[in-house]
Amino acid sequence: RELLLFLMQFMCQEYLEGNPRIKHLVEETRIHLLPSMNPDGYEKAYEVGSELGGWSLGRWTAEGIDINHNFPDLNSYLWLAEDRKFASRKLSNHHIPIPDLYFADNSSVAAETRAIIAWMEKIPFVLGGSLQGGELVVAYPFDMSRSLSHKKDYTATPDDHVFRWLS
Q1: Cβ 15 vs Cβ 22: under 8 Å
Q2: Residues of the chain with pLDDT under 70
Q3: Does the N-terminal or the C-terminal CB of the chain have fewer CB atoms within 10 Å?
Q4: How many CA atoms lie within 13 A of 90 on its CB side?
């Protein structure tokens, strides 16, 4: 969180000072920065302190929802379509819509999750990065295993070489 806040501050200062590289970046690139997806969790973790394992509390919203596992599993929809030999026109693999049932009134979807999904649907990202406290992690899109019995299997994406280079 602090690292991203410092990046924001740096970019603003450098832009105001006329740094040509930063000015070009800001003026020619759509940049969105989200310092905290779960401010409730951040506050809880901050109160306990990371040296006491408080960082893991940051996963949970005020409503008790694990924000890290609250997004829809779109992998399974794609795999089901492949298994049933659906034509690509029925389910395109470059945009899998969020299932309607996910937004039902009785679903356990956090307000933060809904906001992020709405943001991503309104402005589709080309590239995203995530800084997570507590772990050194590189998360890939569609990084789940197709089989529960093979959870450790590496599931490469068509852009695998790009994601490895970026990480």
Answers
A1: yes
A2: 50-56, 86-95, 132-153, 155, 157
A3: C
A4: 9
The Cα 29–Cα 121 span in angstroms is: 18
Contacts of 133 (CB under 8 A, 6+ apart): 1, 45, 50, 55, 58
The one-letter amino acid code at 124 reads: P
Enter the tokens of residue 90.
């029925």
Q: Report how far residue 156's alpha carbon sits from residue 134's, in angstroms, rounded to the nearest whole number.
A: 25
> Residue 129 gets which letter from DSSP?
-
- Helix and strand tally (H, E) in the chain? 6, 0
Q: Is 66 helix (H, G, I), strand (E, B) or coil?
A: strand
Calculate Rg over the CA atoms of the chain.
Answer: 19
Identify the burial level of 30 via C-beta atoms within 10 angstroms of its C-beta, where 0-12 means exposed, 13-18 middle and 19 or more buried. Answer: exposed
pLDDT for the residue numbered 79: 76
Give long-range contacts, CB 8 A cutoff, 24+ apart: 157-163: 163/138
